[in-house]
Amino acid sequence: MATTAPTTPATLPEAAPRPASRLARFLDSDLYASFRRSKLAMAAFVATVLFFAVAVLAPWISPQNPYDPAQLELMNASLPPIWAADGQAPFWLGTDDQGRDVLSAVFYGMRLSLFIGVLGVVVSGTLGIGLGLIAGYVGGFVDTIIMRVADVQLTFPAILIALVVDGVAKAVAGAHMDVDAQLALIIVAIGLSFWVQYARTVRGSVMVEKNKDYVQAGRLIGLSAPVILTRHILPNVTGPVFVIATINLALAIITEATLSFLGTGLPETMPSLGTLIRTGNRFLFSGEWWIVAFPGLALAGLVLAINLLGDWLRDALNPKLQ
């Protein structure tokens, strides 16, 4: 009787290794390694996060709401900082001529300044990236028109563009512009002042990327131009865009503060850092220096931290410096 040879159990295929998470890939990247090597970048990042945290948590960590009339007392007006002879708690950085706590006003002012700066960067980035993608991919007459407009705008300072946009809009609207409309106007004015950097950078990157094989393959399989631009080309040009956005955030905050200081930005009822500096400037020579000094220091520290972070990001994403 024939015997059957014993069968060996089939070996199971080894399970494929799970792909690393995005966080794990980031922690293993050259960008994170460069960040850990730069103590200045780490300090700037921590300072920027603290500024944003203070701005977001301002209603909960401020000693008072400086723009709630029910919490203000004229008897507390013009108090110096707590370490001065006449300083009183809880007004650690003193009060202004209406009895508003300067520390609380700085927290609320930073909140509004960052809000305007971030939205201004979103507006300018959206406009500039969109026009840069179109100019670089379409080329020809469309590219010529967009770039000539950009060249003309580059001949004027950004603050002048913002002043023109703000002034024309207010002249057209007249006295019918409410507070929310003025806030939206200054965001749009800042956005229209800084879109050129995005457009020129993205256009140059798109002109390089559109001749590569993956774009040609996308055209062969019938992908539309918007799909190729948004899904395939745009992710490959985001590095320079992040650098521009970081640096322009600081510029947008300075532009808002400048416009408000000149009296063409936000009204004094809206507590941005620019309006606080403009208000405190009137009392500088009367000895009440703290009303303008602390908002000015907060503005300088915020802009410095963001600029240092942007400088590191520019160097870290530059392949020539690797």
TrEMBL record:
Top-rank taxon, per record: Bacteria
Q: What InterPro entries does the record point to?
A: BP-dependent_transpt_permease, MetI-like, MetI-like_sf, OppC_N
Read off the CDD domains from this record.
Answer: TM_PBP2
Per UniProt, subcellular location reads as:
Cell membrane
Where does the UniProt entry say this protein principally localizes?
A: membrane
Q: Which UniProt keywords apply?
A: Cell membrane, Membrane, Transmembrane, Transmembrane helix, Transport
Annotated transmembrane regions? 40-61, 114-142, 154-173, 179-196, 240-262, 283-309
Please cite one Gene Ontology biological process associated with this protein: transmembrane transport
Membrane topology summary: Multi-pass membrane protein
All copies of domain ABC transmembrane type-1, residue ranges: 110-310
In Pfam terms, one family for this protein is BPD_transp_1
Taken from the UniProt entry, a GO cellular component term is: plasma membrane
Similarity-based family = Belongs to the binding-protein-dependent transport system permease family.
The protein's name in its UniProt record: ABC transporter permease
